[in-house]
Alcohol dehydrogenase 1-like
Amino acid sequence: VTPNKPLLMEEIEVAPPQANEVRIKIVATGVCHTDLYHLFEGMHKDGFPTVLGHEGAGIIESVGPGVTEFQPGDKVIPLFIAQCGECRFCKNPKSNNCTEGWAALRPDVMSLEDTRFTCKGKKVYQFMGTSTFSEYTVMNQNAVAKIDPAAPLDRVCLLGCGISTGYGAAVNTAAVEPGSTCAVFGLGAVGLAAVMGCKNAGAKKIFAIDINPDKFEKAKVFGATDFVNPRDHDKPISQVLIELTNGGVDFSIECTGNVEVMRSALECCVQGWGVSVIVGWTNMNDFSAKPIQLIGGRTWKGSLFGGFKSKDGVPQLVKDYLVKKVKLDEFVTHKMNLDKVNDAIELMKHGKCIRTIVSVSPQ
Ligand SMILES: NC(=O)c1ccc[n+]([C@@H]2O[C@H](COP(=O)([O-])OP(=O)(O)OC[C@H]3O[C@@H](n4cnc5c(N)ncnc54)[C@H](O)[C@@H]3O)[C@@H](O)[C@H]2O)c1
Ligand SMILES: *[C@@H]1O[C@H](CO)[C@@H](O)[C@H](O)[C@H]1NC(C)=O
Ligand SMILES: [Zn+2]
Ligand SMILES: [Zn+2]
């Protein structure tokens, strides 16, 4: 693919796995806003050609030398953050940003040395270390989660990014408390998963905020109790929320990628103890806020992949789905085959879907 153009279907060669690598047959994949960010929003112009997609699930097809943890036939989820277990960040329970993954070298795609894709004799970049819009991909075993064989791959693929991200932002990063009042900004899959996290953590009141009111009905399914469209008010949205909550919410989670919204999310928190978590990352602009907002006792945090250590967290989330503690089916609004992936991208661009599940190979 090239920036700002529809994706092209091409035959590619996927080399066999090398030492400590596995080759995965991708069965299904979601389409996440971060795929668009790379493609249309022009952030990483030098990472082309690439195979996009980072929210997939599949089956191990073959393993390279030194791989003991996986066998052909295992169900797996590719992870865009590794968990090597050895680095400083893996050893510290406060972080999940392992330094051993592809991301330590480049922010968007793997280095060309590490990619196993070629197309017409030319190397093709591997996006976010995963590239799930492909029948096969090769990954280092430290960035692959083995999951329960009972898991339906066309559902649990969503745990490869968006749902884990939003859910974890609430339960891990914000650490929402029982009886609290929460506000979630942006009701895409990530924001809806944050609503679900607030609900599971025992929040009493959950404000769902979006400029697209079509999203409110879904937010109710995940546990939102109150709905606010900033465009219905002449006052700043933070002011509206402060008035509705007698001084501000206990926790707010920003899932839009808009820096103005990040500020509103901070400012709608109660002074003294309010915690605001930034999840969205589309917009690379700087943000601003008044220091007094923090001096009074608010906390401003960011969340990467919901704070989950990837190899430990994802299999547990799959189990949580199988026992119905975590919802996934309710996020799926569309299904299509890989040759229609551009339709899925259009739906996402225009806010017409929550998640589209793309079938890549038969299960
Ligand atoms: N931190 C991470 O690890 C991580 C991982 C995945 C995705 N993300 C980011 O999370 C964000 C959300 O992803 P998504 O897939 O849910 O996207 P999405 O496009 O489906 O949802 C975004 C929602 O925000 C709403 N919105 C836009 N502007 C708004 C405003 N001013 N006020 C209120 N609502 C507004 C939109 O109407 C939409 O419903 C993206 O920025 C994505 O890049 C972060
Ligand atoms: C994760 O760590 C890498 C270095 O290993 C760094 O370049 C990157 O910015 C970190 N990611 C985030 C979201 O902080
Ligand atoms: Zn994503
Ligand atoms: Zn590590």
